């Protein structure tokens, strides 16, 4: 846009106070008008001083200023687009990173839940096994106590019988 000539035609007039009025809806700032009135010498020749600026030179300056302004706006728009694209890429990247982190956490949570279930089942199985052992040993203890009571009873009877025999013999 800034490299080629502009196809837009701008019509302007100068009023009595040497102010420039643009007719086709393009506004010019005071600083731009002042710069256009100042003489410039790209080829080394001097322009006539003060208000003796010819229309062709003024048109050329306006076209150059408009081209520079367009180039600046295009550059800013391109910067905004690139920045927008960069922000969009960053947003997408952070969303992907966040999604991966969430999936990792969900996976880890699911693994922990399954591990907890497995350990709970093992604990229940151990508890049942301990209860079976407890019941078995209580039963064994009851049998031993019953046998011990029987042996005690038999031994006591035999002792009494032996004591009675010894007493009867040695009276």
From TrEMBL:
- UniProt keyword annotations, A-Z: Coiled coil, Disulfide bond, Lipoprotein, Membrane, Mitochondrion, Mitochondrion inner membrane, Myristate
Transmembrane annotation, as ranges: none
**Parts forming coiled coils:** 106-136
* Gene Ontology CC: one annotated term: MICOS complex
Topology within the bilayer: Lipid-anchor
- Compartments where located: Mitochondrion inner membrane
InterPro entries named among the record's database cross-references: MIC19/MIC25, MICOS_subunit_Mic19
On the tree of life, the source organism's domain of life is: Eukaryota
Against PANTHER family, the record matches this protein to:
COILED-COIL-HELIX-COILED-COIL-HELIX DOMAIN CONTAINING 6, MICOS COMPLEX SUBUNIT MIC19
* Name by which UniProt lists this protein: MIC19 protein
Q: Which organism is it from?
A: Smithornis capensis
């Amino acid at each position: 846009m800034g490299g080629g000539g502009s196809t837009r035609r701008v019509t302007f007039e100068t009023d009595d106070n040497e102010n420039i009025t643009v007719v086709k809806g393009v506004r010019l700032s005071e600083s731009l008008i002042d710069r256009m009135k100042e003489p410039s010498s790209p080829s080394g020749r001097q322009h006539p001083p003060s208000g003796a600026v010819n229309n062709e030179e003024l048109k050329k300056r306006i076209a150059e200023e408009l081209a520079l302004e367009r180039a600046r706006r295009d550059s800013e728009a391109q910067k905004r687009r690139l920045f927008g694209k960069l922000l969009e890429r960053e947003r997408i990247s952070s969303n992907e990173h966040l999604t991966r982190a969430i999936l990792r956490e969900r996976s880890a949570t699911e693994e922990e839940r399954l591990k907890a279930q497995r350990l709970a089942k093992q604990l229940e199985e151990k508890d049942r096994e301990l209860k079976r052992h407890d019941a078995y040993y209580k039963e064994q203890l009851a049998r031993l106590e019953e046998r011990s009571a029987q042996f005690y009873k038999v031994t006591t009877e035999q002792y009494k019988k032996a004591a009675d025999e010894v007493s009867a013999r040695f009276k």
